[in-house]
Structure to design on (138 residues):
């Protein structure tokens, strides 16, 4: 089992609550307050999990500046009160930032018994294979 430090455990909790608040905020018709809390908790949790310095290095790499500007710009737009536009910007930035991790995640999900069977269905498999291809390095 993976050994986590106390700050990493706190970060996992913050990130989990952040994802919960983001999801709940979208379900409740893009509630500004829930989305803002979710954004703050998610970014803070990420910093706790991987460390402050590594978080800055991840977000502010030269080839990820476009993705970072969309993601953090979306967070800012949500915080000033335009939740739908902000979430669209965040989602686009999130996919640009983390697209290098998608092949790993898809490979992991394919090994889970029920989900792997679903991902291998003929009409779903083509989309998953395309999403699982990686032509860029992390």
């Amino acid at each position: 089992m993976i050994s986590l430090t106390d700050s990493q455990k706190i970060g996992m909790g913050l990130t989990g609550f952040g994802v919960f608040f983001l999801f709940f905020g979208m379900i409740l018709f893009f509630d500004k307050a829930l989305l803002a809390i979710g954004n703050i908790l998610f970014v803070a949790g990420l910093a706790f999990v991987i460390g402050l310095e590594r978080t800055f290095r991840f977000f502010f790499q030269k080839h990820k500046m476009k993705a970072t500007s969309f993601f953090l710009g979306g967070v800012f737009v949500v915080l000033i009160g335009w939740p739908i536009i902000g979430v669209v910007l965040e989602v686009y930035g999130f996919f640009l930032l983390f697209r290098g991790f998608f092949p790993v995640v898809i490979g992991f999900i394919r090994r889970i018994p029920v989900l792997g069977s679903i991902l291998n269905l003929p009409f779903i498999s083509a989309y998953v294979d395309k999403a699982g291809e990686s032509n860029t390095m992390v």
